[in-house]
Amino acid sequence: MIRIQQLKLDIGHTPEMLRQAVADALKLPPGQIKNYHIVRRSIDARKKPDIFYVYAVDVEIPKEQQFLKKRNSKNLTLVKKQRYQFPASGEQPLATRPVIIGSGPAGLFCALLLAGHGYQPLVLERGAGMEERKTAVERFWRTGVLDTESNVQFGEGGAGTFSDGKLNTLVKDHAGRSRKVLEIFTEAGASPDILIEHKPHIGTDVLESVVKNIRQEIIRLGGEIRFHSKVTDLEIRDHRICSVTVNGTGRIPAELVVLAIGHSARDTFARLKELAVPMQPKPFAVGIRVEHPQNMIDLAQYGVQASGKLPAADYKVTASTSTGRSVYSFCMCPGGYVVNAGSEPGAVAVNGMSYQARGGRNANSAIVVTVTPEDFGSTDILGGVEFQRRLERAAFMAGEGRVPVQLLKDFQDAEPSRNLGDIAPSIKGEWKLSDLRGVLPEVLSRSILEAMPLFDNKIPGFARPDSILSGVESRTSSPVRILRNPAYESEIQGLYPCGEGAGYAGGITSAAMDGMKTAEAIAQRYKPLA
Length: 530
Fold this sequence. Notes:
alpha/beta, 7-stranded mixed beta sheet, 12 helices, 24 strands, 24% strand
């Protein structure tokens, strides 16, 4: 195939205009372009207000190598179609089926691949299935009544379900896993547009049905998923996993256990520490959420207001500060909502989410600062967990049990906010005007305050005095890494740490890919059960 790069078209172009552009790039009559395949589509708004869609397209024509030699264009290259291949099975027999703890992206994709190749996995999820989980989350946002096992962090689909469903990843991928993840999502009901968008996203509203469809496919292929099945203990003998205990009483024999527990399974981390499963603390990031009018972001990024031809604009900003710390945006949600993402009593954590249409009035993003074990105030393996808890409890106190909200000017002046400006918060859950300045360590607050005017230079209005801040953003990634070898196995034989909670991923796609890699490692060693 020949890949054509940098095909620029007006945002109002038609499919016929794209076909003509493909023909022009190849210097061929349009009638000779039988088939072409869009690989990627992005937006070029560098010369505002002139905005273009930019395409990469694959085309099949006869005698491609000879053709390229004649054309000699830097935007034309020969490419081979990359297809994901699951490895051949190993020879070691399994006496019991693999047990996967957790049904987030890592656990679901690990289970899906193993089920599809005859390993009959059992997935144990501490929270509820999607329908029941959604009810519990919406009740929490409406009333403040928290279900500690089914919430924004726990339940079918994992923490990523109540987010924007962003699927872009920086993970290098030469095996086709990233593309396979997108294909599986589209087969489960996501829009086919995610296969070509530069920054694909699904949306919380669509993710709900997508996750359920993946569950049903795992079951159809011979796997099993049990909800309300919290793994409370692991039996380890002679440095080997032997069984798991569910809900304190039910023992399930297991010689192979995948730990896809998510970044907020703090009680599981504590039990792993007691069992001397090798772990280490790791850096992560904390900060606040900031909200601006979406039309302000659209105008800054596009030079014009977004219309039906343009999606709600996003952004990515980063700055170095005199404190020696970098500040950056994380999990940006165009046309989205800030959500109360707490999972423990007496604590508040926030996250961001968008529906597929990204039609909300505000844009929001986390503005975060990296923290390291030196910041935790403890040399304990779980020092990062306690650091998160301190911030979340402080946020709970600041908001009197609700999401604490503060205007940027009041945050600068270290004064509690008493009135809103021209921006009204878009928050899922109860919120209260408060004082966020005392929630974060002062060095982090100063870093954020120094970065905001720098971001304003890139996006006019970013540091407007009535920008809405909320907190605390503390669950950006896992505070620990559960160590594993190149075969994806812990020093505890049969234990496979996996995904974001184990410290090997950062987002839906990378977690799903890590689940796939773990399934591959298991399959290369063991025979299927069926």
